[in-house]
Amino acid sequence: MISIAVILLLQVYSAQCMVSSGRAGHGFVGYGISMYDPNCAYSCRSAISSSALNCSTYADGAEVADMAGMSGMGAASTSGGCYATDDTFLQTLAYCISTRCDGKVAVYRLEKWWLRNVAGTKEVQPDPKYSYQQALARVTEPPTTTLVSGDPLNKTSLVKDADYIAVFNAQEIFEAQEVLYEKYGQAILIPKIYTANGKHDELLTYVSNRIGVLSFANLPLIFLYAGRNNVLLWLTNWSHSTFILLHRWIAYISTLQACIHSAVWLQNYVATGSHTTESKLQYWFWGIIATLSMSILLPSSIIPIRQKAYEVFLLWHISLSVLVIAGCYLHIYYRFENQWGYELWILITIAIWGFDRVMRILRVARNGICTAQITTIDEDYIRIDIKGVASGVGHAYLYFPTLTWRVWENHPFSVASTLLPALEDSASLKKASESDLESDRARTSDKASPSDQDIDIKEISSGSSNKSNHLRLPPSLALSFFVRARSGLTTQFPANGSIPVLVESIYGTNEDLSGYPSLICIAGGVGVTAIMPYLQSHPGSKKLYWGVRNAGIVKTLESSFHGIDKEVFVGTKMVIKDVLEDALANASPDGAAVVVSGPSCMADEVRVLVSQIGARGGRSNIKLVEESFTW
């Protein structure tokens, strides 16, 4: 009795251990897809179908099983045509359904199930010889013989209660678990009716399957959080850097889940001796490709690689991601033929990726082909002005297709200004700028000590403001960006001139810090451009602390900081600890906001110091905002 129950239950779950063919479903299990509805009818058929029929065929020494999970385990192979025409099978099944489904399921639903499932679950299959009611009418007297599961079925028989209940409970609980998983997105292991010798393998199977589906469910989030057009950016007002961090961690989790899923099934197949057969199937092949691609993505995305060879990393990252998505989809397709809706996680992922790419194209197309005016400020910094592009605060991605064969290459830059003071000619500007820089260097070199080099903007710009006034005309609509020329694409800009540019804008918004009476801004180099909107819009007291290598960019941005209290550190190290302690000590007791934008080391230091100073002073009303682009 116990061994037969185990065989019946293993039969139900055999569809989870090999390729399963059947009708394509639409939706998720419980949301458009029903696995066993009505379960009483499915359970009757499962309990009977392990028996050979008069029209079954045999293969010596072979164990033949219906891939849809409808046939039992044995040496007989039963075709759909055999099921559809065998009187004994049809009458036994009809009588079982009438006794088990009586009063629970409407007759029209039983007729519908009968027509679709008696012969099997394939898309195209023969219709049964009789309808459900016709087959039942042929049972003129209640059967007296009880079918022993696995024995040949050669006369109309009763289905043993133990066999029926074992299959019914297994199927009901399995589907209930699938519905709960799809609803809550997490593995829920429900106690099942199983004998002791089946618990270990059954538990491993369910853990592996649930982890595998969880890995799938994480894929849409991975792609959503990496995208520029992430709807959650608009709903939460979190920074893109925050979502990139979440993108990484969810990718770690999803990869670990995929590895566990693969490892458990590998162990299962090796232990049961089926690895040689299964590993030759296409679903196995594509599953391995997906898991390996995910595993390679992690070590190839470490910070040193991203920093030293970002464009190579990006191309490699996208290529492997395509393999992951293709591998996952084909793994499910060749495994289940889209019966149970697992492929929808992949389709959602593709839709998210496609939406982001389409939105990028539309944003670029809206601005068309523009012209970027390049002006060299000094040996470190470059100014980029793009006339005629309407935008707000935030950042934009710029493409310079004539500078590289990688026409898709683009980089994010903070918008420093949306109004451009028109200049008579770039040569005059360059000459005046070089003259002013020489004057500034002369004054700076006369300082007695490094501390004397903490120059206020007014000091370094007052001597030259009158000289450049004759060059300025009324401002025009434009986007202005400031770039530090380090390596890669930025080193290919012309010293002064114009080049074609594509503008993908505008992204990002600034947090509303008006509820904090005091605003403290810490900036490093061109990071000041991300802070400018906060300084220009904040209604309370505000102060800027800005560390910069050369005075050229300070002079260029002079008018943008008019009337703002500031300390500028040119060519000397800004001691952030002293700056923050002094600023927070003088800040309003009703609340202060600290905004930092600059190198990652600066942001890290500010984050630690704000926490320490706030804890030491017992202040919980300090807000920290980091403005940065990180990958």
TrEMBL record:
Location relative to the cell: Membrane
InterPro entries in the record: Fe3_Rdtase_TM_dom, Ferric/Cupric_Reductase, FNR_nucleotide-bd
Record field: transmembrane: 283-305, 312-334
GO cellular component: plasma membrane
Protein keywords: Ion transport, Membrane, Signal, Transmembrane, Transmembrane helix, Transport
Region of interest: Disordered: 434-470
Gene Ontology molecular functions: ferric-chelate reductase activity
UniProt xrefs under Pfam families: Ferric_reduct
Compositional bias annotation for Basic and acidic residues: 434-446
SUPFAM superfamilies: Ferredoxin reductase-like, C-terminal NADP-linked domain
Gene Ontology biological-process annotations: copper ion import; intracellular iron ion homeostasis; iron ion transport
Boundaries of every Ferric oxidoreductase domain copy: 212-328
Membrane topology designation: Multi-pass membrane protein
Chief location of this protein within or outside the cell: membrane
Range of residues in the leader sequence: 1-17
PANTHER family xref list: FERRIC REDUCTASE TRANSMEMBRANE COMPONENT 3-RELATED, FERRIC/CUPRIC REDUCTASE TRANSMEMBRANE COMPONENT
Name this polypeptide is given: Ferric oxidoreductase domain-containing protein
Gene source species: Venustampulla echinocandica
